[in-house]
Structures are given as C-alpha cells and as structure tokens.
Amino acid sequence: HRLEFGIVGAPCGEIQRKVNEINAALYPAKTAYIDADHASDDEALNPDYSCFTSITDKITYRSLQTFKTLDRFDHQIYLNDHDMVLINGNHFNSSAQIVVCHPGKLESLRRKLNRIDNVALILLAAGVTETPNFLKLHLGRSFAHIPIGNWDDQKFIQSFFRSQISPPPLKGLVLAGGKSSRMGNDKTV
User: Fold this and answer.
1) What is the value of pTM for the model shown?
2) Which residues of 5-37 are buried (b: 16+ CB within 10 A; e: fewer)?
3) CA dist., res. 9 & res. 109, Å (int)
4) What are φ and ψ of residue 8, in 5° steps?
5) Which end of the chain is less enclosed by CB atoms within 10 A, N or C?
6) Which long-range contacts (CB under 8 A, 24 or more apart) does 38-42 make?
C-alpha cells in the first residue's frame, strides 16, 4: 500500500487494541489491518473489526473480513481503496515501521532489527523512559529525526496518523474542457 505502517515491538494483543483505538479516532478514514492468527491464549483477542478491512493470515488460508463484496478484479487492487494499512510488524514486514519499546519485548525487538529500516515513529511503553541504545545504534543518524512519544498518549498518536493521511500538497494542476473557440464546440462533450 502507498501508506502502510508495521507496528513492531509490543505484545500482539496490545497492538490489536491500539489499532482499534487508532481506527476509531480516524473515522471516517478507511483503514485496513493485517495480522496473523494467534494461537497462544495470552495474545488471542476476539477481533474487533473496527477497521474498514481486516486481513488475518491463518497460515494455511487467509481470511478477509470486509463490508464490500469483492469480485476477482477488485481483490487485486482492494487495499488501494484504503487511506492507510496498519500491519502487525511482529509477523510481517512493512515499508515503514512504528517501533514500540515495550519492557517485556525489548529482546524480541533486538532480534527484529533486520525488519526495521524505515522508522516513522518510536513509542515508549509504560516502564521504558528512553529509547534503548541498540535501537539508537541501529538507526544511526536517522534517529535524530524520528518523533518519539508515549504508547499511552492517544492524542500524540492520533495527531501523527492524521498528519500521515492528510491529502498531499498540490504540486500541479491540469485543467481541461471549456468552450473551444477554434473548433466551436464544448470540449467536455
């Protein structure tokens, strides 16, 4: 998708809850959520399909819950109809990442550094007061330009996502139509 963010570094259940909060706050923006099926009881949640679309990789098959009926052509381009796609970055790669520094998942985050190559936002969960040194070293010079906030600061997170899905600045405009003085008839017909 042209605007996708993988949320990596938090327990999967907490990522699901955060995605639901983000979707509720950004309504009526159309968001999709991509996740894997969670077999362990501590991570499994009853899905809250507050997203316009939720895609769950069931490992042996895929499940797509949507409010729209898809034909075989729609399926290929379906996510282009969305404003943003959020991904559980613990399971899948993404073009941009939101890194969560969670006290119970720091070692897991360290093992996933190969997936972290375009960080858009760093969020510190309760119990973490600063970005871990291993992440700072991995990000190098780009670390200085990455916004950092708290995992529980809903206003900060909403503001970040609103700025991402706002329309891009207009760079050019092509005007067509109007009355043709040379040919004598309206160009819009």
Assistant:
1) 0.76
2) bbbbbbbbebbbebbbebbeebeebbbbbbbee
3) 5
4) -125, 140
5) C
6) 38/12, 38/13, 42/11, 42/13
